[in-house]
Amino acid sequence: MRPMLQKAMEEAFAGESMAHMKYMIFSDIAKKEGFPNVARLFEATAYAELVHATNHAKTLDIPKDTSGNLQTGMNGENFEVDEMYPAYKALAELYGDKKADKSIVYALEAEKIHAQYYQDAKAKVDAKQDISDEKIYVCPVCGYTHIGTPPDDKCPVCNIPKEKYEIF
To answer: Do both 53 and 12 map to the same domain?
Structure first.
């Protein structure tokens, strides 16, 4: 693919991905505000944006086999932990933006865990094994993620009760 088209497709993929997430967030807000049909409209449009993003990702040869996808995920998580979020945290501190700093710290702490889980999963997949079927718990406030029974009564990052975790 020519460089200019590659850049355009990467931007299209990023835009469609962001639209998908925005519309899912908007759907949750509409549900909470008592507009279930508006929420459904946002969900349907979010799905369409996911289709677009998936098509663009395929064009860019982003998806690979599971091992390759885990490596890509691990690389992304490590980039966020090692470079992106430390730089963003420095900016938030420089500008004294406590709300941005808190959001960044939450993400940074969760990304560290995600990278390790991807690394562990990749080792299993490369050995032709699946990971365990233990429940996966995710904090809905900060994104802290834990496989198996959570170790504490509260989230170790943001302190909400573990009963509020989403379970996968």
So the answer is: yes
Placement of tokens 């995600």 in the chain: 114
What is the rounded average pLDDT of the residues 41-69?
Answer: 97
- Tens of pLDDT, residue by residue over 76-90, are 999 999 999 999 999
The CA-atom distances, in angstroms, between 122 and each of 73, 86, 115, 129, 131 are 10, 26, 10, 9, 9
The Cβ of residue 148 has, within 10 Å, a number of other Cβ atoms equal to: 10
CATH code (residue 159): 2.20.28.10
Count of domains forming the chain: 3
CATH number (domain holding residue 9): 1.20.1260.10
Q: Per DSSP, which regions of the chain are E strands? A: 136-138, 145-147, 166-167
Q: Find the DSSP H helices in 3-35.
A: 3-32
How much is the pTM? 0.87
| Domain, as residue range, for 147 | 132-168
| Distance in angstroms (rounded) separating the CA atoms of residues 14 and 56 | 9
152, pLDDT greater than 90: no
Q: What is the mean predicted confidence (pLDDT) over 69-76?
A: 97
Q: Which two tokens stand for residue 134?
A: 């233990």
* pLDDT band with cut points at 50, 70 and 90 for residue 91: very high
